[in-house]
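Loading example: each entry is read as two labelled lines plus one structure line.
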Amino acid sequence: MSSFLSQLHFQLSCALQQRIEICKLRQGEHLILGFSIGGGIDQDPGQNPFSEDKSDKGIYVTRVTPGGPAEVAGLMMGDKVMQVNGWDMTMVTHDQARKRLTKKNEDIVRLLVTRKSLEQAVRHSMM
Amino acid sequence: MASVNNSKNLRDSDIQKKIDHEIRMRDGACKLLAACSQRDQALEAAKSLLTCNTRIMAYMSELQRMKEAQVMQRVARRSDGTRSSDAGPMDDRLPCKGKVAISDLRIPLMWKDTEYFKNKGELHRCAVFCLLQVGGEIHDTDMVMVDRTLTDICFDNTIVFSEASPGFELRVELYSCCSEEDYSAGSAPRKLASKLSSSLGRSAGKKLRVAMDPGACSPTSNAGAATLLLPGPAVAGPKYHLLAHTSLSLSHVQDSFRTHDLSISGNEECSYWVPLYGSVCCRLAAQPHCMTQQMMSGCLKVKQLGGDPPSWTNVYGVLKGTNLFCYHRQEDMEANVEPAFTIAINKETRIRASEKDPHSKAQSICISNQYGGEEVTHTLSADSREETHRWMEAFWQQFCDMSQWKQCCDDLMKIELPSPRKPALVTSKQGSLYHEIVIDTSDDISTVTDILTRRMQELELRSQLGTSPPWMSLFEESPGGPRTPRLARHSPRSPHRLPHSPLSSLRCPWPGLLSSDASLTSDSDSPCSTSPCSRHRGWAEPLSLSSPRFRPRTLSLDAKLSTLRGRGYGGVLQCSCQPPSSSSLAPIPAQCVPQATLSCSSSTSSNSSSEGSHSPSSLDGTPFSRPSSARRSLRNLRAKLDPRNWLQSQV
């Protein structure tokens, strides 16, 4: 029993890494991805509702537009964005993050995100 | 050999023409100085004189350096009989040149309270200007009159040097001249100067002729001529002295404001002394040519991934900046159609030539990039070996440029040339609250804040009636002005400006303080943010007086402000759901305004350290304009008082 619990604890502290490929959608002059981000090294991390560690200054997905390119690609609210097309997003300002996602010459962005999923952690520990 | 000499002679004569031109300008300035009666004219003429002299000196040194190089080459040729090439060894790759622009220079001042009591009667004023030099190119800024009502010296000029190498050294020199001396009075140093110049007149003239002669090849005589040429004709009139200087280089280049240290010469005893805080704030941007120009273009074939036998697509490739744009046809590029695809060519790209394809005779080029952990390789092929070689050369040159220009090649920095017209609401004095508020030294902090509170209330009423003092324009947004281009960058993303606000676009007379204001209508104002309060989050920062990121304030002021808040004025700030009444809002600017003014005098470093970029997330100490412009919208939109500051952006 104790080993199961410690295993469970280990799984809970792990996060799932996902690779998400989003094809930008053209709306008039703009290329949009269909989600919102929050966070950054210049923001107050205590206000982040999605982070477990309240000193985490990373970039989090705060909203996903229903039916938008991000939702179609599998991005979920609460995901923490680690990389965008190879660029690190764990130590960037909010505006740097926004800029890296909205480069005009890129049609596709490949995100590396981590997702805390209790369900999956429990499932893994059962196997 | 003849062609080398010809190009040398061409450069020589170019420089001599420039020297002649500057000497003529200098003569004109001297004549003007002698003729003018008004102090302002004299100061301007003296400024032109100094600029001309500095330019002449720079050209003379360049001439001297060229002659020295010529002599060295002749010596080398004679000694070993081989011909040395002009540009050095051929396998050394030279990085491309670029544009370097310096703008929004601001030098904070540090007046002591005793300054207020010196010089009974008229203000002690100095005329200041800056000389900016890169290599042989020298530019001067406009002249600014400085007196104790000014908190910063601001130069609005944007100065662009078009051909700078990555190892450039931008020398910034601040000259000042007391504007109260009586210039016509005879003085011993001047008499000496005139004696010297007249006695050396003949020999100076001879040496000057020798210097101008392209055949002269002795460096020492040129050096002598250069120093004798400088004092020139003795002039009566104001003289500028070097007050401070600094040198900037590639490591200081950034796409935002930065603060640099100044080396100060002179001391309080000098007539031209102005109490500088010791730093200069400016925006130094660079656009290397490899980022703005097409470095290479031509027809290429791109291998399609997968498929056997591999198929090739014809594209027209253009190498510019950190990208290789591949268009379907050349006409597409000229018509500004979007490219078919883009291959990144940046610091992390790896390029190599390969001989893999046994069918084609030409080599192919493989370009590898990392996209999100995966390596993506594009294989390109040119029409012939020579073309392939030219493309590889272009790529190597690009890598060389990027390694030399470093951070300038990450993203293209904007260089804006200022619009020629000045907005009508600009105050003639460079906006200072000291001007308007009478504060006795015996007043303590509480009296100061009370005075300011009353003043703001007065101004509230007055602005409602339509009249407002000139410095209110600090809090007003006006159309046009140098910040508009930056705003335009943000406006497509957030078309929602504040409703009910009579203000249109921001004007920042204090660029350092208000730089982040340009982004107030940021993405955080988009209608699609999650929480109901987030719409107004962008406005929240300035009112969050408890935010740890705020500039340091004097402790007594802190205490005073918190008691003011405790009394209920600040209650508006804490509760986001109460509609603020107009009476309780009046003190808010008072709380914020003294921060700005008093912290200006006590720690101007906080002014100049607002290094934040023009991003919506930049929060560094800008209480000055935001609360006032937000004041009106606060009355209408209660949720803007949300003191939380965690921005969200929609992408």
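Helices of chain A lie at 2-13, 69-73, 94-101, 118-126.
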